[in-house]
């Protein structure tokens, strides 16, 4: 008996989450410039400002298969670089070193400190670092604190000592920091709550005492002592260290008293070990006077001879706080930006805002604040009403934006003939937006202009070998050729020497100073705009295809002859003595790039009508002799040979829309073939450049870019489908692309080949709640401070209509239902008045609108409808644990049936197919029901064995449902065929005994994986033309992922073996086991971790070889298999 499932999925993240847990800045690369490291819960990214543009550039991004809890940087005195301290659910204290030349992090230490998982006693909640890098304190939520002493050995290598404990029972730590003390014993400060006195009290206690506690590490005695503790306001929540200096050994060199800035509700305080107490109120706007203001982020910025603090409140306002020598706190309004988790100030005058949600911002300082300030030096704090008025940004200017789409509340997959688009409802209140995500490379358009007619081909060329930039832009039409000059102005050239009355087949700068034009009736050689030579084919014979390098030229004639030329020592193009007759019509030719140290390309690749590719030699001793041949799946209409990632590659465009790439070694042998279907049209190829590396352009139904920067990627380019294109290199535009389509010429650049998802946004009025698609429209229900319904046209990207609800009305969900009795579709909107997060409300009802958002009527409900779907020409609503079926009435919706479900508690999701309904419950997972038309009743017949907390759900087929819960799990549940047949007989189901107080039958848990994000929506469809159907999902923190089904058992067996081998040989940066991570709440089942498997491409060759030996496949075969899964689906 086989226990192998027929279903196995490949989980792949298309876009990583955006919600950050923290950021820090330091000299991680060992150079003088600063880098920013930002971390989400499973990824570490290194950013650096580009000094020429001021933009933030991503240097490195590594996924961690663990849950990162905290990060911080530290530098040992005398060391040339910063190290990164990381804590995670692995239970290890991890120290990482950045190795930029090798594009990796090196794990220096993984010191175990607690059990794995996230626990309140695990000292990984916060990291506090001594400014001089001598000690690192790890703090738990409760009781435990560990201090690690850091040092260097005689080889200048980082060392770490065994941890010292600083534990206090029944004490909660709110915030912990390291203090500046020059080179005295390291000190730390912590906001703590001692709940020991209240532990046994039965009643609620709201007046816990908060204290500021100072800890000192005695380096001589190697112990940690609690040096001082004092009471601080009960609402204290944030700390910042105060510089201490100046001193010869000071970490800052800035004059300061040391100690800590303590932030509480509406107040900022200064405290130190010597009893100094200074306080100042936080200014408020007029609208904030009745609300508490908390500091949620801040930074201490040290300059030569001074320092100041930037504190951000929960409303986004930033205040500049100063502590002058006269021991007063001075506070002033600075600017207002989105609420951040971290604020980073760089020495170069930039500010990085790591926002809680939405886009991340990079600012440049214009000035350091206003003249208007508030000061206080009172020891006994008495609240003052300080007010300020917000203004536009005055002190900082935004210069770069890093797009972020968290949080995502809903998403819709829309597929047309050429592309797939994902619409995501994202953001909160002022940052609310509808995000359009499209799989493809975004472009920056430089210019677009009209052409006199439809163009077929386009080339750019230099006039001499020594030219740095292109001089001519040559465009080929049906019977003519247009020549334009490339310079400050693009103008037509009338004296180029080119035959403008011929349709050009190819343009090539050849030899030292010549230009070759190949057209159907001959070859023209031009030098200094003069025709110096012209080669003509025999009478009645035409040139059909050509290929060239700077020193070689090959053409095919209409009589199937192949003619080969080379440039001699006198810089003349000379025909080789013998021609070669091919067995069938030649459809494509390609001469590869000339390798360094050689004077000619060693191979000529020929494609013919018989679907054969031949590799011929160009060696003078055996010119045009066959080296190797290979059959193809289609006729090769375009061939391009170039170096990619240091290897010579033959790129083929076939007439059936398939692109193929195979590698060509020095002996002429072909290996490692990769293919991808690009569209229904024949594929034409061209070449462009990016940072000195070749990129292949492919033109079919869409324009594609094939790059190999360590990993082969085939990505569509988000530009209108081009007929032809090529590289464009001028003084003003390097690494550009020029293309033609219809009667247009366009010049653009592709800035980032790694970013293959384009992101556009449309601002919404309030926090989006639900997206409902109907034809070419999206109905967007916003439900933040105010509620709205907006109708978005996906063809024009405009809002066609909108409607506003009353202030006390909150939209719960919306749906489009086609009522069979009316023969029309309507928008149903579930609304609750005076709704609170606890679920309390005053009234609940359904608004019914026409498709133009005109109100038809209102229907009062007994409870809130959290889900609405269309079912057999009626509307099916889930209200608490009731299913209610409504039909359209004149004055309100008419209830046709109500089914009470005693096995569920609160229905939050419903999906339906045919006669079957699937409901997702807030606590009781998924239940399948069948509708008995005679009894007019919904009857549950199968449910889950686990009490999952459903957040999203979708039926994959009649017997299968995919869902997600609030703990970050994704699962696939299936009803067996036998149970499904039984479920169709509702009479038989009613006679069955309930199993474990649930339905008579149980669902099979087919697949399960932990994605560490709360799935908010699922969609099923195609992401690429000709690809396989997949399931896409969106996560609350901004994750976009895809579940790809394997089609064969051999693929399932291979990838499970590869994943198992990689788990044995590839350690995680934090020491977390991948199997434990992906099976956080339940063992991973029948899902291959595609994110983990794809890291195989980044491993060193020795490790790849070990894994390949374990799997029993070559390294090339493994990389090909990994490529195929993505290529066939995305």
UniProtKB/TrEMBL annotation:
GO terms for biological process: mRNA processing; RNA splicing. Belongs to the RSE1 family. Residues 443-750 form the RSE1/DDB1/CPSF1 second beta-propeller domain. Residues 23-389 form the RSE1/DDB1/CPSF1 first beta-propeller domain. Residues 793-1097 form the RSE1/DDB1/CPSF1 C-terminal domain. Its main location: nucleus. Keywords: mRNA processing, mRNA splicing, Nucleus, Spliceosome. It is found in: Nucleus. This is Pre-mRNA-splicing factor rse1. It comes from Cyberlindnera fabianii (Yeast). GO terms for molecular function: nucleic acid binding. GO terms for cellular component: spliceosomal complex.
